[in-house]
Write a structure and sequence with these properties.
By secondary structure, chain A is mainly alpha-helical. Chain A is elongated. Chain A contains seven helices and two strands; from the N terminus they run αααααααββ. In chain A, helix 1 packs across helix 2, helix 1 packs parallel to helix 3 and helix 2 packs across helix 3. Helices cover about 50% and strands about 5% of the residues of chain A. Chain B is built from nine helices and no strands. In chain B, helix 1 crosses helix 2, helix 3 crosses helix 4 and helix 7 crosses helix 9. Chain B starts with 16 loop residues before the first helix and ends in a 5-residue tail after the last helix. Classes of the chains: A mainly alpha (about 220), B mainly alpha (about 200). Chains A and B meet through helix 1, helix 3, helix 4 and helix 5 of A and helix 2, helix 3, helix 5, helix 6 and helix 7 of B.
Chain lengths: ~220, ~200
């Protein structure tokens, strides 16, 4: 794009161009006439400029062919349409929608009918089943295994009971019950003598220490 | 209005009270007032677009878009008396932008139309030839055809200045206002355009 700093007011052809437009001052006109008199080439250039300018001004008679009756109506219709935010886009879409695909219209119906008449197997090929199902099955198995492990509480290893006590129901007439220690789950130091009775409801432990397998009198 | 005027308003710079009133009413969303402005400027707008684009269909579409855009952006027009040059600037810019997008896009697909920006595209342009055939004129001489082709090769600013000044006959001052440049630069652009055309048509002129 030309800029102001590109202007060369002393260019003789520039004076010729401005002379065409009646834009020269008296001094500039005199200078141009002197230059034209001195140069045949410049005179030829000036003649070419005039011929071309006459061609350009003759183009004013070449007008666009427009439907002027509807031109203003179309503009006002768009202006008054408050929803007409992007008319160009809407028009592009409409024009795109009017496009028709290239296809064999005559053969289309025949193709459809032939496919209807010949039912095709709809089952999925076995290799597709394997290809799709195997990874899914493997993933499901992993998820299930992880979930089951996570949800199952780990067995709590509790210390073995000191002893398994077997209680024999006492005779109703006697206040004492027979208590036998069936087994010790683990070795333990000799229990200290019991200095007092401990009542558990149905039985009463005697004060004398008891050894394994020893029965207390009922 | 300087050279031969094509619109009802007087020379550039003078204020037409009626037109100023119409612009003020249009700025207040009076569509009927804007319709009157359309009637006043439609031929000039279409003519400028036609010179820049080379065919009536594009000129009609782009000039309509320019009017619609002008109506929606009237709030940006500070001086109602400058409506004419302001409108022509909108027409010129849209026409030049459309020219560039049309020239740089040989494909015909919706994606191409969308990529170029909706406001630049008109129905069918994204789906027609990149260079629409100009209005056929069986009487056009070889020189006219050569001149048309030569003008296509001018830079945008030189072509615009030459069309507005030499073809449309607008005063230099109005051309300068439309192009948002100095009068001297308008003169220089016109000169450069003439010089370039002379070189391109050296064998015919």
């Amino acid at each position: 794009m030309n800029k102001s700093e590109d202007i060369n007011p002393n260019d003789p052809l520039f004076l010729v161009s401005r002379d065409l437009d009646g834009d020269l001052s008296a001094a500039e006109k005199s200078r141009l006439e002197r230059l034209l008199g001195e140069s045949a080439e410049l005179r030829g250039e000036a003649l070419a400029f005039r011929r071309m300018e006459s061609l350009l001004t003759a183009r004013r008679d070449d007008e666009a062919r427009i439907d002027w009756l509807n031109y203003e109506k179309l503009i006002l219709a768009r202006v008054e349409d408050s929803d007409d935010e992007s008319p160009a886009m809407e028009q592009v879409l409409h024009a795109w929608g009017r496009r028709q695909p290239e296809w064999d219209q005559e053969g289309f119906a025949g193709e459809v009918l032939s496919r209807i008449a010949t039912p095709q197997k709809r089952a999925m090929p076995w290799w597709k089943v394997v290809r799709l199902g195997a990874p899914l099955a493997a993933a499901a198995a992993i998820v299930i295994a992880f979930t089951a492990t996570w949800q199952t509480p780990l067995p709590v290893v509790s210390p073995a009971p000191l002893a398994v006590v077997e209680i024999h129901r006492s005779d109703a007439r006697s206040s004492a019950s027979a208590v036998s220690i069936v087994s010790f789950a683990r070795s333990m130091p000799r229990p200290a003598p019991l200095e007092e009775s401990v009542s558990f409801g149905y039985m009463t432990l005697g004060s004398s220490p008891m050894s394994q397998q020893e029965e207390a009198p009922l | 209005m300087g050279k031969e005027g094509g619109v009802l308003n007087p020379a550039a710079g003078a204020k037409d009270p009626l037109e100023v009133a119409l612009v003020c009413r249009a700025k207040a969303n009076d569509a009927q007032a804007f319709g009157e402005l359309v009637r006043r400027y439609q031929r000039r707008a279409v003519s400028v677009a036609y010179r820049l684009l080379g065919n009536s269909a594009d000129a009609s579409d782009v000039s309509q878009d320019a009017f619609v855009r002008a109506y929606r952006n009237l709030g940006q027009l500070e001086d109602p008396a400058r409506f004419g040059p302001w409108l022509m600037r909108v027409v010129s810019n849209l026409s030049l932008n459309f020219r560039r997008s049309r020239a740089s896009r040989p494909a015909s697909s919706l994606d191409d139309a969308l990529l170029d920006g909706a406001e630049l595209q008109k129905p069918g342009h994204g789906l027609r030839l990149a260079h629409p055939v100009a209005d056929a004129d069986p009487m056009a001489s070889e020189l006219d055809v050569a001149l048309t082709r030569a003008m296509e090769q001018l830079p945008d600013q030189q072509r615009l200045a030459l069309i507005l000044f030499s073809v449309e006959g607008l005063p230099q001052k109005e051309v300068a206002e439309i192009m948002e440049c100095s009068v001297e630069l308008v003169k220089w652009n016109v000169f450069q355009a003439r010089k370039k055309l002379k070189e391109l048509l050296a064998d015919l002129i």
